[in-house]
Write a structure and sequence with these properties.
By secondary structure, this protein is an alpha/beta fold. The protein is built from 22 helices and 15 strands. 44% of the residues are buried. Bound molecules: 6-O-phosphono-beta-D-fructofuranose. The site of 6-O-phosphono-beta-D-fructofuranose has 14 residues, from loops.
Amino acid sequence: MAISAPIDATKTPAWVALQKHHDELVEKGISLKDWFAADPDRVEKLSYRAGDLYFDLSKNLVTDETLKLLVDLGRACGVEERRDAMFSGEHINTTEDRAVLHTALRRPASQKGELIVDGQDVVADVHEVLDRMYAFADRVRSGEWKGVSGKKIEHVVSIGIGGSDLGPVMVYEAMKPYLDAGIDCRYISNIDPNDMAEKVKGLDAETTLVIIVSKTFATLETLTNAREVKAWMLEQLRACGAVDGSAEQDAEAIAKHFVAVSTALDLVADFGIDPENAFGFWNWVGGRYSVDSAVGLSLIIALGPERFQQFLAGFRAIDEYFENTPLEENVVALMGLMNVWYVNFFGADTHAVLPYTQYLHRFPAYLQQLTMESNGKHVRWDGTPVTCHTGEVFWGEPGTNGQHAFYQLMHQGSVVVPADFIAFANTSNPFVDEGQDVHELFLGNFLAQTKALAFGKTADEVRAEGTPEQIVPARVFEGNRPTTSIFGDTLTPFALGELIAVYEHITFVQGTVWGIDSYDQWGVELGKQLAKQITPAFHDDEALSKQDASTKALIEFYRATRR
Ligand code: F6P
């Protein structure tokens, strides 16, 4: 079915009304303090539950009218129709002519036969691979699967980059309290040989399983690292006498120590991996939307099938909520629409994500690919130029560390940085320090920051503390810095699945309003092509002569300096 042309958001009555509304708010003076005082129901009206997460939007720069107009904008831009098109498998990834069906990865097996896309029963396909992965993971976890010398697997090395790395690393770090099989995972992504060198340090090859993860199985970094690790593995196994160096024993070692995850199973076989040990996924899963596909194999091994099922159930809870909740009550859609509000009407160029749990320390990095590879686009899905600013920079670090680094700019800088604060009521590691519950100390900081950002501190309040007059301005906090608080019970596999799905759908909403294909990534291609052309110039004068003056000078510096 043909996908309709994008609607130009800026030409809709809702956009025009939002611009007028914004200008009026600014003219009257935005004051969260006054808005809270004037409306005792503000918090109740702007608090939401989705799955088992609690969302507080009340500290955002929005009124009832703002949200109404944003919902009008979402409707005018066809968010609901496009959402339904995505869930039903229409080819909304227009530049690659593909369905966008990461939501099918978490549909229950009971839905087999209900979603036939391009002639395939996608839920049946998903569960066929899940079942194979669960069986494989059980064998590895129990010790039934053994290395070539008969030893149980104790380490997993997962090789991948971008979507084939960021999700698994982030989830592995976040789920550390749930690791229960005595199997640790290490992730190699960078083509910089230092990454591999450090990750294999101290590893026992006889007890190591390598997973090569690549959607295309053609990514330079991943294939280079895979070859390096293969060479390392065979060398180590020969050195300890586990194999004798014969082609037969090498092949047996590869079969016992290497498995692969890819959509290109033919290329996996070419690499020498037994198709029996390969786990597939499909071109309707974007790399950055793939952590809940076979790309998460290392997680299934480390956490166990049951916890991975809970992880998928978390995604599913948010999918169902997002699909079935009217826009005006749909906090996930509202967060996406508010991001448009900040980017296009307040000129916000960045968006901070600040988890108040150390376990989510890779979550902002994961979100960078999800959001920026999706929405950093200059044309719309029909190839016409975008009509407004798109794609803010997502960034962040866990609190409280960020408080002692960049929060200064958030509190008193001259740019608006909308921020999402994420926290959980329970911790896996409770401690009491001198009678103080340390988790409460931590959460006190989470609440203090959003409060300070919203309500600030006036000059009179500063003066009342006895501050010398010349220092008063420097100690004033203007407030009205927008934040959303996401509060959960415990960072479980289920809650993590929920959180990821929330941001997947936020990204979708923004992309739809801007009219862009959030599921392609042509912007990463040029650099890959140029790297191929440039690399020979380190040694080849003719290749060097074809470079621009700046590149040439840099290569000449290299030639003169490399030992
Ligand atoms: O270069 C960008 C990219 O294509 C990402 O979109 C993707 O997640 C990553 O490279 C890795 O690709 P692959 O899984 O095919 O190795």
